[in-house]
Design a protein that fits this description.
By secondary structure, this protein is α/β, with parallel strands linked by helices. The protein has four domains: 55 residues, no CATH class; 327 residues, Vaccinia Virus protein VP39 (Rossmann fold, 3-Layer(aba) Sandwich); 68 residues, no CATH class; 122 residues, no CATH class. Helices cover 31% and strands 20% of the residues. A ten-stranded mixed β-sheet has the order 3-22-4-21-20-5-6-8-7-18, with helices on both faces. A five-stranded mixed β-sheet has the order 23-24-25-26-27. The protein has a three-stranded antiparallel β-sheet with strand order 17-9-19. The chain binds S-adenosylmethionine. The site of S-adenosylmethionine (SAM) has 17 residues, from strand 21. S-adenosylmethionine binds next to strand 21.
């Protein structure tokens, strides 16, 4: 952590409107824009039409408005509208495809990420420490899921083969659609917008991109995250050469854009020292026990910034040594370093002159390893390493150009204002592909004894019939991602058990009965829960399209008499309710029996949920005794007994009378 200067006190009084603007900017950075004032000067101003749109009121946006700085493209208005259309879907749990379903806190969500991001807004608002995405680059070859604004959830369900048979086909963007920026912008904008909501205040997003859309992406991010939250446009050198046929400059790099949710004024960036840099620290002196090995660097500098106080002689063996231009350190700091033997002196016979170097130690005074400064150019890891990482688990090339695991590990290790992803933080990747992000996190957890959790989202994009993936039995890209994670988990599990076995054989005295290599006492989260995007299990939540014919609406209304989808399992209903009440789908869930009725207890009893056909007065009384934060049951479970329902409302209201407002029990029916 850097030591921060105290904030300077100003003599002026609290500027309420400035504070209001600052708060508004934090909530809606995209509504701030630059316009010319009456004097023709540029001013920061608020785009009120946009603000209205953010709040759900649409006027004829982008028409009849003054010229302003910002980014517009055909369809932007609709893209904004799309953000605000609530999702009528759910995420269905899929035990068979998960690993350690009941205990894991990692998620793999199969579905279109726009819909999924909407569904996660309640449960993960402000909870994600880092987002990494590697979206389609709009090269003209890859598939871009069409966010045609006339499409609805049914389009996805058809695409995923969940209704109407084999799946709806969409063309790749390079056929008749052309490689239009508009399509790509309409795709990425709402997703980034919703993603920002999920970031914690100290959260960051990294986005891989190449020359095709880097300019547009940067501008869109300026709008969505706020220009002041820009951290870096990192250049990633991904290869060392290209084939003889390549024309023009040989393209060796792409980019990783980095934005913060909220930069604080003293923000700084650091990262652990690379292995290459660490290897420079080889020498030892009397400070070794405390400060570790050291390396040396020249103390004199030819910096252009002339400072006469840095120009003075250093005395060594009775001789005066002068810098070529000036020293790096002040006189008092040099004298202290000399006293502590933290300088080295070398005599050059040829020039008959001395040079002075200072010692830099590997550890800080507090014993912690020093951090390094990451550079804006990342040379490697190269793309071929990504392929090798993947081939450790697959003997065929079933996924083209996965990102190298080391690239992700590097990004995960970057500290913004002294905080890197660690402990129990949540990391998200909603263009997951083959699941590289999950592998990087699992490796990091294994190496550093942490429990960083991941949420991956991947479309069940079909693998074409002639692809290696299809031949190897993978129907969709999400199938590849899930299988990779399973194999990584298995390999970590095997390696951990093997290591424990070896350690036990070496020093059996360290192993007590509760640390048995063969037992389940391994603490790392070696699992992931698969959830799949699907239509709501509750008919009244399967929102109707405004264009639906009246007969269809009537038909739907009659269905509401029995409004739960018959194919839904209690677990399906449970997960939908969790998401829609703002609980994480990874919360601890237990089943309790209360007065003979099955009740789900979520998050150590914070939510009690009864999905049984019937509720009784005894059950309601008992639940009120338990005092959960929320109790939810089926409306139909009252069997039209209005008296019983009114009593239930009364019971909770009476209890709430004795409680503070924030502690009151919420009672709802579905
Ligand atoms: C460039 S790849 C990501 C590769 C990944 N970083 C890796 O290392 O394996 C982009 C992925 O995003 C997926 N994708 C595209 N549109 C999507 C959408 N709307 N929702 C979810 N995933 C999508 C594609 O299927 C593709 O697998």
């Amino acid at each position: 952590m850097t030591i921060q200067d105290p904030e300077k006190m100003t003599g002026t009084s609290f500027d309420i409107s400035a504070e209001n603007r600052a708060q508004l900017k934090q909530l809606f950075p995209s509504v701030f824009t630059e316009t010319k004032n009456d004097k023709g000067e540029l001013d920061e101003s608020i785009d009120f039409e946009k603000l209205k749109a953010e709040l759900g009121t649409f006027s004829d946006l982008f028409e009849s408005r003054r010229e302003r700085y910002g980014m517009d493209w055909p369809g932007k208005k609709e893209a904004l509208r799309l953000i605000q259309t609530p999702s009528a879907a759910t995420l269905k749990p899929c035990r068979e495809e998960s690993v350690n379903f009941d205990t894991t806190e990692n998620l793999f969500i199969e579905g279109d990420n726009l819909e999924v991001l909407k569904l996660l807004q309640k449960s993960y608002y402000g909870k994600v420490k880092m987002i990494y995405i590697d979206p389609p680059y709009n090269t003209g070859n890859e598939f871009i899921y069409p966010d045609d604004f006339t499409e609805n959830l049914d389009t996805y369900l058809e695409y995923a083969g969940l209704i109407n048979g084999d799946g709806k086909k969409f063309s790749t963007s390079n056929t008749n659609e052309g490689r239009f920026h508009t399509n790509w912008l309409n795709m990425i904008y709402p997703r980034l917008y919703l993603a920002r909501n999920l970031l914690r205040e100290d959260g960051v997003i990294f986005i891989s991109i190449d020359d095709n859309e880097v300019n547009n992406l940067r501008k869109i991010c300026d709008e969505v995250f706020g220009e002041e939250n820009f951290i870096a446009e990192l250049v990633w050198q991904k290869k060392t050469g290209a084939g003889a046929k390549s024309k023009g400059f040989i393209g060796l790099h792409e980019y990783v854009l980095c934005f913060a949710k909220l930069i604080i004024p003293t923000w700084d960036i650091a990262a652990p020292m690379s292995e290459k840099t660490k290897a420079m620290y080889t020498k030892k002196d009397e400070h070794f026990a405390k400060l570790g090995p050291f390396a040396t660097w020249p103390l004199d500098t030819t910096s252009m910034d002339e400072r006469t106080n840095l120009r003075f002689p250093i005395f060594h063996q009775g001789q005066e040594i002068w810098p070529r231009k000036q020293w790096l350190w002040s006189k008092s700091r040099v004298e202290l370093a000399q006293q502590e033997n933290k300088l080295t002196f070398n005599y050059n016979d040829k020039t008959a002159s001395w040079s002075v170097r200072f010692k830099g130690y590997l550890f800080e005074e507090n014993g912690e390893e020093k951090s390094g400064k990451p550079t804006s150019v990342m040379i490697g890891p190269y793309t071929q390493e990504g392929t090798k990482d993947f081939q450790k688990y697959f003997d065929r090339d079933v996924f083209p150009f996965p990102k190298p695991v080391a690239l992700l590990k590097h990004l995960l290790s970057i500290q913004v204002e002294g905080v890197e992803v660690s402990g129990d933080d949540i990391v998200m990747d909603f263009f997951a592909g083959s699941g590289t992000t999950a592998e990087a996190i699992l490796q990091l957890n294994q190496e550093t004894d942490q429990n960083i959790k991941f949420i991956l989202v991947q479309l069940p994009e079909p693998c074409s019939n002639d692809s290696e993936a299809f031949k190897a039995g993978y129907k969709t890209i999400s199938d590849i991602g899930k299988e990779r994670i399973r194999r990584v988990l298995e390999s970590i599990d095997t390696a951990t058990r093997k290591k424990l076995e070896i350690d036990k054989n070496k020093s059996p005295e360290l192993f007590t009965a509760d640390i048995e290599p063969s037992s389940e006492k391994l603490t790392m989260d070696l699992g992931f829960k698969v959830l799949k995007l699907n239509k709501s299990n509750f008919k009244q939540w399967q929102k109707l399209d405004p264009a639906t014919p009246v007969e269809k609406i009537e038909e739907q209304l009659s269905l509401h008499i029995d409004h739960i989808d018959h194919q839904a399992t209690p677990e399906d209903l449970l997960y939908e309710i969790l998401l829609k009440t703002g609980f994480k789908p990874t919360e601890k869930i237990e089943t309790r029996t209360i007065v003979g009725t099955k009740v789900f207890s979520v998050a150590e009893g914070a939510l009690l949920l009864c999905l049984e056909d019937t509720v009784t007065k005894e059950l309601i009384d008992q639940i009120a005794e338990i005092e959960p934060m929320q109790f939810i049951c089926l409306d139909s479970a009252f069997h039209s007994n209005d008296q019983l329902k009114a009593n239930a409302v009364q019971t909770f209201a009476a209890r709430n009378m004795q409680k503070e407002k924030h502690n009151q029990i919420i009672f709802k029916t579905i």
